[in-house]
Amino acid sequence: MANIGIVIPAAGQGKRMGAGYNKQFLMLMEKPILAHTVRLFEESDFVSEIVIVGAEGDISVIKELVYYQEFHKVAAVCIGGVLRQDSVRAGVRALSPTIQRIVVHDGARPLLTLQAFHKFLEESREYSAAIMGVPIKDTVKRVDIAGKVLDTLPRDYLRAVQTPQIFDREILEEAHQQAASAGYYGTDDASLLEWMGHPVQMVEGMQENIKVTTPEDLLLAERILTQRR
Length: 229
Known about the structure:
Elements: E1 4-9, E2 27-28, E3 31-32, H1 33-42, E4 47-54, H2 59-68, E5 74-79, H3 84-94, E6 101-104, H4 114-124, E7 129-135, E8 140-143, E9 149-153, E10 159-168, H5 169-182, H6 189-196, E11 201-204, H7 215-228
Parallel strand pairs: 1-4, 1-6, 4-5, 7-11
Antiparallel strand pairs: 2-3, 6-10, 7-10, 8-9
Helix pairs in contact: 5-6
């Protein structure tokens, strides 16, 4: 499982957070959110290389963070695109040619543990594409554009998708190339493979692996880290 490359899209501005700047620079337990996220992969023996993708105006800040946090596995900090999909494509291109197994992980998911990450790698090693997800707790209903309920979806077959997501490099690059040519944009990288008709395996995730999107999420993340300590 060694020689894994990590792509961390961190170009989103996080308007729902209301901070007025990239939410991944917000402080979480005295460190920027992004620092927590990168630290996990820096400490993994299975990770050879990390690429962080940021907005053009954030590149210098990210490079400073990498320097002062002593993230030696960060091989590149590159400029992202308009949408997340464009940013991931740029990050994949920035990885060394020797990297043939790629993990994509949101910069704003700082609560993934090393144990959960390594378990994910082990359980996904036989698949060319695998994603992490957790069972849905709430009842989910499908509605029309006017809000009228159409039907209730069976929870047993539903998962809330998280990152990390892992792919063989060849199939991920092919999916991004075909999507770019067709002008297709998916909600995550796995959806590009689904669009191509390529199988994607779901692997059990962890409920604490939340994406910090709102001020309430930040408070929850602080509480989770406090409990861990």
